[in-house]
Amino acid sequence: MSTCGFRVGTNLWRLRSALPRLLLGLGLLVGLQGPPCAAFYLPGLAPVNFCEADRETAACKSSIALFVNRLDSVESVLPYEYNTFDFCQDSEKKSPSENLGQVLFGEQITSSPYQFSFNKTETCVKVCVKSYDIANEDQMKKLAFLKKGIELSYQHHWIIDNMPVIWCRDMEDGQKYCTPGFPIGCFITEGGLSKDACVINSEFNKNNSFYLFNHVDITLTYHRESERNGGIARLVTARLDPKSYNRSDENHITCDGPPMEIPGEYTDKLNITYTYSVKFEENKRVKWASRWDYILESMPHTNIQWFSIMNSFFIVLFLSGMVATVILRTLYRDIIRYNQMTSSEEAQDEFGWKLVHGDVFRPPRYGMLLSVFLGQGIQVLIMTFITLFLACLGFLSASKRGALMTCAIVLWVLLGTPAGYVSAKMYKTFKGVNWNTNFLLTALLCPGIVVIDLFTMNIILWVEGSSAAISFGTLISILAVWFGISVPLTFFGAYFGSKKKFGSPVHINQIPRHVPLQTFSTKALFGIILGGILPFGCIFIQLFFILNSIWSHQIYFMFGFLFLVFIILLITCSEATVLLCYFHLCAEGSHLETQHPKFLLGASHISTLCLATTKIPDFQKDYHWWWRAFFTSSFTAVYFFMYAIYYFFTKLQITGMASTVLYFGYTMIMVLIFFLFTGTIGFFSCFWFVTKIYSVVKVD
């Protein structure tokens, strides 16, 4: 390096070191000269300040609004809007703006008639009265739908200051069980079996009876800021306790008495009075920035899973290190031995993975389909990585409902360019010529399967009247984004990808090697089945939490660990595929001789596949590794699907054909996505590995 170059580098380093101080000084200068402004929090939402009604100002407010979300159930996949049930409704019906993720998930947040004033305790406040007359057919339909919701254990989901209101109850084993929702009521079967919440009250004991929770005791906890800020407060927790009271006198409402019972066969007029009580408590320890920590109490299996998660993490690290060490040691010996061959006779007597160097880069069958899968896999892989990374940083936290799905969809649309580029470049490497077909399949095949699946399930949701049904206008908008943005970007990437192919370090023979029938142990299916076990082993515990958040309506918060598991999954898929690919290529040797006994004794078990003292039969000469590499890691998706079936029958209580079809319909979309990006990881890892090992050996 010249002296001039060194001085330039030193000056650049000094400039780089001084840059933070320059930016800080510039920021202070702008801040002092600019007008005062309110601070904001990132990531997350800006806090809302509350104060008593007599101290209300523009900086703080006294009124607290309660919003209601859709109702869902662990026994049904069909969610319903709050107003679908005959509950007390807000006459104004103000709904906050919803993002794309909320629309696709069927969230229907709307205002409610429950209104509170900060730090004002209220008891037994009447909200509304609902009457049901047996002579009124419309009222009886509403009552029947309400009873059906109680029987299927549908739950309310209320929101105060953007926080979910949680319900905690004591279990028989002394532990506290919390959930971000509370049931409509509970049901006692004809056989006297108490379902769900009926166990919390001994008065819920009549057979074939429905008990409605028509009263809630709400407790709001706040953290008082310093008196310098005018004594403003911020809400940090929101809890409630559902109650059931049968009020005979609507003019003198009390919060006691027998429960609100609805017999299974009701033949009289029925009046239901909905009430609430609210109280406020100050908490000096929990601040606004940590207020979501109390949601951890709503995760019933969090504490007992940490040991299993860490145990799985260390097992995966150990296996990954072992696989990498074995492959590197064995490959190093192979390459040295191949390159030490000097005579022509030794060069002709090839063995091991070098034997198939003239066919290993021969284009595979169905190269068009493989290139399409790889393009879509790259698109999904980058989308997943960026989404999880942003969620890990907190930009897609639980406080921003629907942000995770919205981010994933936007990224998928914008990543059409790398999908088209990779697909076209691989197709050119496979010596393909049907470029129009390649482009159209890359842009339409896998997304088309997902859209058809979603449209089919959306028809079921329409028929069932679920709030999760996507409107026709939203469907048209999604199709417009797909064809108007994603497809042109895919064409743009395919245009540049078709200009250049991936290079091959060796020449391909004109006459392909004959590949006879294989034994069971050397067939592709055997290695593919084994290849998916290790990647699935590092994710199945995390998969339990993810499925719980989707189908059991738990809030998922471990994005940091999920991102770490995702990285481990990438490494494990890569190493497992490379290892099995190496076994596959080593099994091609058919002229091995016993000339290096010391080397054989010191080698690992993997070396015996390439350097065995006996000849390997001719029928093991199989050089077709392209599809095998893709399916080895993508077979993890099959284990994913098998676990989803196990989860459905052992962890869920879903009933009804519609809910079952919806469960497996959504599961198939997740399996397809998992299939694409895991297969892509394994393929490109093996492709890089094969290219490297054949580029460092001497081939005549």
Automatic annotation (TrEMBL):
Pfam families reported for this sequence: EMP70
Membrane-protein topology: Multi-pass membrane protein
Gene Ontology terms: cellular component: membrane; plasma membrane
Compartment annotation: Membrane
InterPro entries for this protein: EMP70
Listed name of the protein: Transmembrane 9 superfamily member
Family in the record: Belongs to the nonaspanin (TM9SF) (TC 9.A.2) family.
Gene name of the record: TM9SF5
Keywords tagged on the record: Membrane, Signal, Transmembrane, Transmembrane helix
Example GO BP: protein localization to membrane
Entry's transmembrane regions: 306-332, 372-396, 402-427, 439-463, 469-496, 524-551, 557-587, 629-649, 661-690
Organism: Equus caballus (Horse)
